[in-house]
Amino acid sequence: MHDNSPPPLDCSFLTRHRQLLAEDMALAFASSFSIATGKRTTCKIKPLSPILKLSTQKKFSCSATVTMDRTQASEYEIESKKHNLLSIIQDTQRGLVTTADQRSIIEEALVNLEGYSMGEPIDLAKLDGTWRLQYTSAPDVLVLFEAAARLPFFQVGQIFQKFECRDQSDGGVIRNVVRWSIPTLLEDQEGATLVVSAKFNVVSIRNIYLQFEEITVQNINISEDLQALIAPALLPRTFLSLQILQFIRTFKAQVPVTNPDPGRRSVGGLYYLSYLDRNMLLGRAVGGGGIFVFTKAQPLDL
Q: What residue intervals traverse the membrane (predicted)?
């Protein structure tokens, strides 16, 4: 008794590839023969059998599922590594309080994430926006944290990097923003704003060169106690006292950054953006300037 059941489905992409190759060769031969003889040649190609069509559809469906599963797994791995990094740096006070072992663990966590962006060019549209500092080992930033820890009259609030490069192809503007305060005189944490502005150019796949231009002190918000001292609420406020308050609120000091060596361009530095996605930015100041961990923040108006 013969087995009349249909043969098992063949999900082999190679089978389909060979048939398509044979069809292409047949069409190419027919075309060349027609051109050479001037006679119209008809080349009949048998349609795919229902079983082969089904096997091809099944193959593509399997491939799409596998690709989707791998993508989801990769995204899960990345999010897991990001969460791990943020957990490790959580109690370091943005890098001020760390041990040698902690710094080694943090470095390993960074390297694990950086591998996912290796070889990819910088996406300026994704980079554009405001990023909040979560951790750094940069000496020029840690000195601010150390001063705030030692001096009772100085506070350091949030620190941001603001990139303006959405419609650019090879660079833009970066603003390093530091919120700081003097207790009793200014509002806590956000009494004033220090902004260091620089132009940047993309110089390689993931390196940008910063050329600093200006340092600005602005957005001074004096405390309620100081406001009451300058213009007491219970007394008629004089025109002079109101003018003083308005001057303080709108005060803005700008100092250009220049190179002391004439003929050379302004002070700058190389910045390696080692990892970037929609909500995390990792960077390294080239030349031993330290590492930086940022998370995406709400837009910042300056």
A: none
Average pLDDT, the chain: 79
pLDDT at residue 116 greater than cutoff 80 = yes
Report residue 258 as tokens.
């220049």
Q: Assess contact for 159 and 132: CB atoms under 8 A.
A: yes
Are the CB atoms for 153 and 108 separated by under 8 Å? no
Q: Are 55 and 10 in contact (CB under 8 A)?
A: yes
Say if CB 177 and CB 162 are below 8 A apart: yes
* Amino acid 301: pLDDT: 86
Q: Which residue has the higher pLDDT, 174 or 188?
A: 174
Average pLDDT over residues 1-8: 47
Whole-angstrom Cα distance, residue 271 to residue 177? Answer: 17
Distance CA 161, CA 131 (A): 5
In degrees, rounded to 5, the angle at the alpha carbon of residue 205 between the alpha carbons of residues 202 and 207 is: 50
132, 195, 193: which is closest to 160 by C-alpha?
132
Report the alpha-carbon distance of residue 61 to residue 101 in Å, rounded.
48
**Residues 6 or more apart whose Cβ sits within 8 Å of residue 219:** 192, 193, 302
Beta carbons of 215 and 194 less than 8 angstroms apart = yes
pLDDT at 154 over 90: yes
Distance separating alpha carbons of residues 220 and 252, to the nearest angstrom: 8
In this prediction, residues 179-196 reach a mean pLDDT of 91
Please give the torsion angle defined by the CA atoms of residues 24, 30, 35 and 36, in that order, rounded to the nearest 10 degrees: 120
* Residue 206 DSSP symbol: S
Q: How far apart are CA 160 and CA 175, in angstroms?
A: 8
Percent helix, strand, coil in the chain, to 5, is 40, 25, 35
Q: pTM for the full model?
A: 0.72
